[in-house]
Design a protein that fits this description.
The chain is an alpha+beta fold. The protein has 1 helix and 8 strands, in the order αββββββββ. Strand 4 and strand 5 form a beta hairpin.
């Protein structure tokens, strides 16, 4: 009887963990679909919780001459996702507000540059969720 209860408990635990892992994965499952048209992932998923100002910051280095695609993903639908790229001196390089809030951007830098990529939501209420940034590049 004890062995039977142990097996049932273990099975319930495995099912719970599997459901929990799959539930987390569903929030941004369309993100990798945007990484197409010859772009290859850099192999990392940049995930961050939104700060109290509803901004997540990512620090990235982009190498000169390479063609990149950055993709911002979220399951937040209450506010448009704002994707902004700055250089390290906070000079604006790109903002998707000017492009109908597109979740991705393709670009080429002529020289290597360090950038700050921000994902933001323009709302007064603090959104306590995660956002994801994917970076892809085209192989030469």
């Amino acid at each position: 009887m004890k062995l039977f209860l142990y097996k049932i408990t273990f099975l319930a635990f495995i099912i719970f963990v599997n459901i929990h892992v799959n539930a987390q994965d569903k929030s941004n499952n369309n993100c990798s679909d945007l990484l197409n048209e010859g772009y290859v992932s850099d192999g990392q998923e940049y995930i961050a919780k939104l700060a109290e100002n509803n901004v997540a910051k990512f620090y990235c280095t982009f190498y000169g001459g390479s063609q990149y695609r950055i993709i911002a993903c979220t399951d937040i639908t209450t506010s448009p996702l704002i994707l902004t790229v700055y250089d390290t001196e906070k000079n604006l390089l790109f903002c998707n507000k000017d492009y109908d809030y597109t979740p991705f951007w393709n670009f080429i830098f002529t020289s290597t540059i360090d950038c700050i990529v921000e994902i933001e939501f323009d709302t007064e209420k603090w959104i306590k969720k995660e956002v994801k940034l994917l970076i892809g590049f085209k192989e030469k």
